[in-house]
Amino acid sequence: MEAIFGKLLEVSPIVWCIIAVIVVISLIGLIFTAKQGTKVSSSLTTKKLVYGGMCIALAFILSYIRLYKMPQGGSITLASMFPVILYSMVFGPVPGIIAGVAYGFLQLIQDAWVLNWAQLFLDYPIAYGFLGLAGLIPGFVKNMNVRVCIAVSIAILGRGLMHFLSGVIFFADSAPEGQSAVLYSLAYNGSYIIPELIITLILSIVLVATPVYSTLKRNASR
Questions:
Q1: Domain ranges for the chain
Q2: What pTM was estimated for this model as a whole?
Q3: DSSP line for 3-56
Q4: What is the pLDDT of residues 18-32, one digit of tens each?
Q5: Which CATH number does 2-220 carry?
């Protein structure tokens, strides 16, 4: 565990500054929304920005706690996508997609593998934007465990699909001789997306059993 969390010590000062700026702006927004007399529509909009910034910052920090790092991009983390997924479930798909895209651009700071602009957008803002699809889960799914499992699965597998397409289109040359690019990309991306999905599912089921989700949902609607 020390080795895993020790990765945080390797984070550059620039990255910590970015995280600090996001957190400070979010806290200022939180104080602003707490003031008396703030209009409801303005307050809700501000809350979306505030919680979005905090969830992005938390996700970014968790992304540095890597259980395993793949040689050509991708890693198994401590459920780093969950804060953005939770945000999407609370505020809906549009704010969730925007938060996911922002988080995707921040991921470029971490060991980015960029071949061209098309691959950059597919593997980062577009792929992470799929995390916002967690907000599409219909309200008739009342069982919270079922709801969160569907949301997490759609979000993470959606992101994985984009990486799979990127692998087939842009990283076909990396496939071993005699192996198709489709099978190579499926095996490569599945080797970290599936474990990440399992870890996130376990953690999310545990967290929604606590007051975290209900409190966030209640505060978001005020």
A1: 2-220
A2: 0.82
A3: HHHGGGGGS-HHHHHHHHHHHHHHHHHHHHHHSTT--HHHHHHHHHHHHHHHHH
A4: 666 666 655 555 555
A5: 1.10.1760.20
